[in-house]
Amino acid sequence: MLKGSSPLIFERSTEDRFAYSLPDLEVEKHELSDIIDTKFIRRTKAELPEISELDLMRHYTELSNKNHGVDSGFYPLGSCTMKYNPKINEKVARMPGFANSHPEQNDKAIQGSLEIVHDMQEHLKEITGMDEITLQPAAGAQGEWTALMMIKAFHEANGDHNRTKVIVPDSAHGTNPASAVVAGFEAVTVKSNERGLVDIDHLKTLVGDDTAAIMLTNPNTLGLFEEDILEIRDIVHEAGGKLYYDGANLNAIMAKVRPGDMGFDAVHLNLHKTFTGPHGGGGPGSGPIGVKAELAKFLPKPLVVKEGDSYRVEHNVPDSIGRVKPFYGNFGIFLRAYTYIRTMGPDGLKEVSENAVLNANYMMRRLEGTFELPYKQHCKHEFVISGSRQKKMGVRTLDMAKRLLDFGYHPPTIYFPLNVEECMMVEPTETESKETLDGFVDTLIHISKEAEEDPDIVLEAPHTTVIGRLDETQAARKPVLRFQREDIIEEKE
């Protein structure tokens, strides 16, 4: 067991202890082989921990207390929008009528749930400026892929089979080029100019009759608004391509400007980010997509439609690209996002954007004198600073991120985007107080001073965590991917 760490569940195990009790058997007892084919029966006892209920509860409570999340501390991951998850959302999602429903029920039995889905789609149409919405994709990246498959189907339906390339900025989220490749396209990179925006002259050299689409987020991954978005729209549309909007950064512009009004043909949203659904640790996610009318017939099936005063699930969608998620997506996340939208209203969503932008600019200007600021203009909801000054002192951005752990902060995103040296990307969101922002900024300034006066304390960080600095090269090349129970047995002996 590591010094200062909690014992593993197997280390707590003692023979013949139980955390459960079962009622007496009230049916005739059978040999297992009488009711289950012997090939499915274990030949050796399952090596499960044996532990009392109290010790079991303490074990998982200790683990949860070591976990970091938005409920326990500041979580400034750039481009991830780790905002507070209002607890009213959880209350609504747990209402028995929703929590106990099942997607295999017939439409008449789940009219309330279908109404929520349909109404949610209508709200998202208004927020994005799109003509049709599907809530089916399970995450943002799947939303990207789904939209690209629809764009591909559109071009092929028009007999245009030569459009094989998708243009992606060099500052884009890594999922953008990945989604393009998985959808069968070639990803082509367009450079950023000196202001961190799409280089228009370079874009003009890339578009042509082989351009299927361009993938953009606006504001972009550097937290900067693409001021030439209408010119970008015209360049791509005149070449016959489509504009795809990565909705990861919608938190900066809700109720201010809509992707559809900028000229985008398709958009994905992250309900688990922008609309306060909890995320991290692999899910759950939700990545609805919206499209303009000419793409609508290719939406994944089924669709939730309204007929008079009732709702139904429509499976007959002849030109659909097909199903992309079992049933109709992650309903629990729809409920949380729907509650958030109805709670905030249009004025509240507008205020969200304003406060997110205010918080980011406040932090950026406070840090400007300590860290290199690669782009001087005002940012939107997130900003990028560089640790290049500190690197000259022998301390890298990675070292400063490790040192933040000693002060109880989750580090921001580092080394992304790739086009900024020693990058640190910070997104405070609108939900954090000025006191929290000041505390984080003061800590970063303090760490920068340490880098200058006592670099070893930063280079050897973290000092207060259960596990110290990892050998990241060995962890990447020789990962331990499963629990080795033999080590525990040897240690006990």
Automatic annotation (TrEMBL):
Residues 43-304 form the Glycine cleavage system P-protein N-terminal domain. GO terms for cellular component: cytosol; glycine cleavage complex. Residues 353-453 form the Glycine dehydrogenase C-terminal domain. The modification N6-(pyridoxal phosphate)lysine is found at residue 273. It catalyses: N(6)-[(R)-lipoyl]-L-lysyl-[glycine-cleavage complex H protein] + glycine + H(+) = N(6)-[(R)-S(8)-aminomethyldihydrolipoyl]-L-lysyl-[glycine-cleavage complex H protein] + CO2. Its cofactor is pyridoxal 5'-phosphate. Signal peptide: none annotated. Gene3D superfamilies: 6.20.440.10, Aspartate Aminotransferase, domain 1, Type I PLP-dependent aspartate aminotransferase-like (Major domain). Belongs to the GcvP family. C-terminal subunit subfamily. The glycine cleavage system is composed of four proteins: P, T, L and H. In this organism, the P 'protein' is a heterodimer of two subunits. This is Probable glycine dehydrogenase (decarboxylating) subunit 2. It comes from Salinicoccus sediminis. The gene is gcvPB.
